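Hi team,

Below is the intake form for L-iditol 2-dehydrogenase from Rubricella aquisinus. Please confirm the fields before the structure is written into the shared record.

FORM ID: S-0412
PROTEIN: L-iditol 2-dehydrogenase
ORGANISM: Rubricella aquisinus
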Amino acid sequence: MPDPQPGEDALIRIAAVGICGSDMHAWAGHDDRRPAPLILGHEVAGEVIAGPMMGKRVTVNPLVTCGTCRACKAGRDNLCPTRQIISMPPREGGFAEMVAMPPENLVEVPDGVPLEKAALAEPLACGWHAVRLGAHALDIPLSEAVCVVQGGGAIGLGAALVLRAQGAKQIIVSEPHPGRRAIVAAQGFEVLNPMAQDAPRDVDFVVDGVGFEATRAAASDMARPGGVIVHVGLGGGGAGLNIRRMTLQEITFIGTYTYTKQDFRDTAAAIFDGSLGPLDWTEQRALTDGAGAFDDIAAGRAATPKIVLIP
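The structure came back. Fields below:
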């Protein structure tokens, strides 16, 4: 592929880029929004080498919005009707040496923060956004809530870390993979194996970081009357919710997509000041081993919640 040209954008030499579940869906041919041939990857950090902010170390908000529509003006820019995201046409993604982005999508990274950690701002911002919306809908403070997070990948673990940073004290993470359960437990969370243990009942706040029929069904069954479910995962399909129970018990269901620009900035700041912990649960591989990394994730051989590729 030819090198991107900065124009009015900043040209970033990529230092780290994470593999997302949506990249996996596209790679498997299950995402019509990402037709091949296309450079995937949207969890990016690097150094600006041309254009605005030249010389700055940055993490990249991959969601490009118009800034002028009703959603953008209301601070809900993630709902912009003309939104674009790198790794979807017409914008190529970050599994490459360089990417061009508008300067307003860049957050400067302090010198003491490794860019491999700064690249986690994107997946962690998804959890930040979901927790913020869910906490607003909850009828008790987070500090008093029993919270269950479904999924111990980067989205689920990130949501658990955000819950803890925002005051939640009772957090359970449900994850079937034994390697991921061990990693989640090492972060100080209670874990359960949904394949062998019954889900809790009367849960105040459920985060579905997986988004399959089975996890939606479990979420709608475990939420207490008046509880809140935030749905982040994009595993597929629309089935699974117990709509009758959710209606009779007034359970709030919130679909959450990405994050606002402010959510992204707030998440980056929390990474920089250590509020989200050491973030030492990633695995780093060379970009040239990207195909092998995708194979390992697809085959279930990768226990780590996040593989970060280094160009």
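SUMMARY LINE: The mean pLDDT is 96.

Thanks, M.
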